[in-house]
Amino acid sequence: MRVRKYATVLCPITIPFLLLPSLTYAMSFDCSSIRADKQSFDISPLGNPISVMTSEDHSPSPTMTNTTFTMDICKPLKKAQGIPIEEDCTNGSMICAIRRLINTFENSTSFEDAIPIAGKFTLHGGTSLDPDITRLKTSSSASDREKEGFRLALHGPKYPEKNGQKQKAVIEFLCLDKAEAKKQKAAAAAAAATMKPGPSITARNDDGDEEDHSATGESADDGHGGTLKYLDYSTVGDSRVLSLEWRTKYACEDAAKRGDGDNNNNDKGGGSSGHWGFFTWFIIIIFLGTAAYLIFGSWLNYNRYSARGWDLVPHSETIRDVPYIFKDWMRRVVNTLQGGGSRGGYSAV
Question: Nearest-5° angle of CA 306, CA 308, CA 309?
């Protein structure tokens, strides 16, 4: 009997905690409303898979390691079809590194490793994305304050899981205005026209398609006039950090005024993103305050009055009467609407 009592006692107390997962999801990273020092950025148009590649030569051996970093800044990557599960990153990966060994003598490619760098890994150690956002104009670094944009740090699990290094990605989003974009495009076209072709190394990937490894592929067009560039992937402290630079018009603080951002709002123009941020925090504060009140009130009733079951909950009698009060109120509303005063206030006898 005592077990049954305690089961009843815990039900009303634990109700608020059952809603915590939904609140945690609501507070997760949203690429359409990034807030950094009262400045809003909307990079949701960039929310598609994009890849950059870097190569490491193993001379004098006729081999080289090709590492492809694929990322989706807004959501976890989808599993590639036709690729064995062991040759792909774990579910929830937003940034994934695939390492392949290329043998130029045998003209072949073999899989080496798949490294999840950042993402939401609820089933793999419970690692969270834990985004850290820094506005460059108000950064403590003097060199950062000369730039416009923001720095985004995303975290991942240890790899390998046992005795491995923590994975982390640091992406610097830099403002790319229209004039600079035109100059960058013209410079790239001129460089491509004057560049002498290097030695081409062709191999077949896992799908049987030919890959040209004559260039490192350390930058990629994002499809919106911007460029994602690979900088480094090395050990910093106890973590393995991937450093990327993304020049894009969506990192400009006046993108909303210029019409470059879809829903980007700055300090003066604050629209839906800013109001939604305030509304979200308001709901969270109300929720936590209600939960604290219920828990403290239940604890007080238990220790002071030895209450059990629903009697633990503060104002339990009022709460139990709420359905009847609501029902009575609805009946009054219906009677008022249906009566309409057709008899001038007199009732038939």
Answer: 165
Number of neighbours of residue 279 by Cβ within 10 angstroms: 11
- For every residue of 212-258, DSSP letters joined together read E-SS---EEE-SSS-EEEEEEEEEETTEEEEEEEEEEGGG-TTHHHH
| Cα-based torsion angle of the residue sequence 58, 242, 129, 262 in order, rounded to the nearest 10 degrees | -120
Distances from the Cα of 269 to the Cα of 44, 133, 251, 252, 275, angstroms: 19, 21, 16, 14, 11
Residue pLDDT, tens place only, 243-292: 999 999 999 998 766 665 444 444 444 444 444 567 888 889 999 998 89
- For residue 80, with 0-12 CB atoms within 10 Å meaning exposed, 13-18 middle and 19 or more buried, which class applies? middle
Average pLDDT, the chain: 77
What CA–CA distance (Å, rounded) separates 133 from 266?
16
- Distance (Å, rounded) from C-alpha 315 to C-alpha 265? 44
**What's residue 84's pLDDT?**
85
Which two three-digit tokens encode residue 67?
A: 């590492």
Contact yes or no for 203/213 (Cβ under 8 A): yes
Per-residue pLDDT, 222: 92
User: What local confidence, expressed as pLDDT, does residue 190 receive?
Assistant: 60
Give me the pLDDT at residue 294, please.
84
Contacts of 37 (CB under 8 A, 6+ apart): 135, 137, 138
DSSP string for 20-70: HHHHHHHTS--TTSEEETTEEE--GGG-S-EEEEEEEE-TTSSEEEEEEEE
Q: What is the band of 122 on the pLDDT scale with cuts at 50, 70, 90?
A: low
Consecutive H or E run containing 328: helix 316-339
Higher pLDDT residue, 188 or 176? 176
Give, in order, the Cα–Cα distances in Å from 43 to each of 33, 84, 116, 173, 180. Answer: 8, 32, 22, 10, 19
- What is the Cα 114 distance to its own chain's centre? 21
pLDDT computed for residue 69 by the predictor: 96
